[in-house]
Amino acid sequence: MRIALGVSYLGSAYQGWQSQPDGRTVQDQLERALATFADVASVPTLCAGRTDAGVHGLNQVVHFDPPVQRALFSWVRGVNRYLPADIAVQWARVVPDGFHARNSARARRYAYVLLESPVRPSVEAGRVGWVFRPLALEPMQQAARHLLGQHDFSSFRAAQCQAASPIKTLHRLDIRRRGPYWRFDFEANAFLHHMIRNIMGCLIAIGQGLRPPDWLAEVRDARRRDVAAPTFAPDGLYFLGPVYDADLGLPQRTPAFDWLPL
User: Fold this and answer.
1) What is the average pLDDT score of the chain?
2) Which of these, 220, 153, 227, lies nearest to 193 by C-alpha position?
3) Is 41 helix (H, G, I), strand (E, B) or coil?
4) pLDDT value at residue 258
5) One of 22, 39, 52, 152 is an active-site residue; which one?
6) Using CB atoms within 10 A as the burial measure, which of 15, 37, 143, 170 is most buried?
7) Are residues 142 and 131 in the same domain?
8) Does some domain include residue 247?
């Protein structure tokens, strides 16, 4: 039997998702809790999308093959007992043996939440990005259109990216505002390492009037990281989760979605 879990977490205290020798990652915390609950040495997991240090997850999906039999709801409540307060399993479902959290995903969704304010955030520190210069919506929307569809995203790729190809398909990039908060929604078949944060740096430069909207097309076509804006902060970036075929019946949302601004 294979089980899929939906996991939400604040990434501020962790060195990203993927397991590291020092154990300060979300995956390390989750696998330790699973093993403790199951009373076994280890329970390996595989996730839908690895997140960087400081990046949050609202519906990260992982799969594992349980080493012991437990009631399905116990994989939620029982595992949460051994997790820190900033990580929680939200749901558990039995999935087909061939299900793969990463390879079965049709797309992945992220949101970046940004505070525009003359002073830095306090209550939202670590949970939103921040700019103190005013942003203009229309130039950013015009620029975003240059990235929709299939492109070589090498200009937005981190040097340490391990993806086999820089060619990805960006299905959606929506931008909207409510009060001092901005939200940028991304959906693509897959993302490169730091791709969203590098795009954000460019969009913000355009929104602040430092660059024209068509500059983003020039950056895209250059296929060189050094022509783009600096990588933006991870604080306001949220992995909303993968998109799977509907017949799997996996939840697309968790309660954390209702907290996220906009």
Assistant:
1) 96
2) 153
3) coil
4) 87
5) 52
6) 143
7) yes
8) no
- The total number of residues shown for the chain amounts to 262
Token digits for 106? Answer: 């049709």
Q: Angle at Cα 191 formed by Cα 186 and Cα 194, nearest 5°?
A: 95
Q: Give the structural domain span for 113.
A: 107-239
Q: Which two tokens stand for residue 46?
A: 């595989």
Angle at 13 between CA 91 and CA 163, to 5 degrees: 75
Going by pLDDT thresholds of 50, 70 and 90, the confidence category of residue 262 is confident
Comparing C-alpha atoms, which of 128, 137, 140 is closest to residue 260? 128
Confidence category of residue 256, pLDDT binned at 50, 70, 90: confident
Model pLDDT, residue 116: 98
52 flagged as catalytic: yes
Question: Of all residues in the chain, what percent are helix, strand and coil, respectively (each to 5)?
Answer: 25, 25, 50
Helices in 59-188 by DSSP H: which ranges?
A: 74-80, 137-144
Of 104, 129, 151, which residue sits at a domain end? 104
Q: CA separation (Å) from 127 to 55, 88, 113?
A: 9, 17, 8
Whole-number pLDDT of residue 84: 98
Taking only the tens place, the pLDDT of each residue in 113-152 is 999 999 999 999 999 999 999 999 999 999 999 999 999 9
Q: What is the DSSP letter of 213?
A: T
* Residue at 250 is within a domain: no
**Cα(30)–Cα(20) distance, rounded to whole angstroms?**
13
Give the CATH number of the domain where residue 117 resides: 3.30.70.660
User: Would strands 87-95 and 149-152 be described as parallel, antiparallel, or unpaired?
Assistant: unpaired
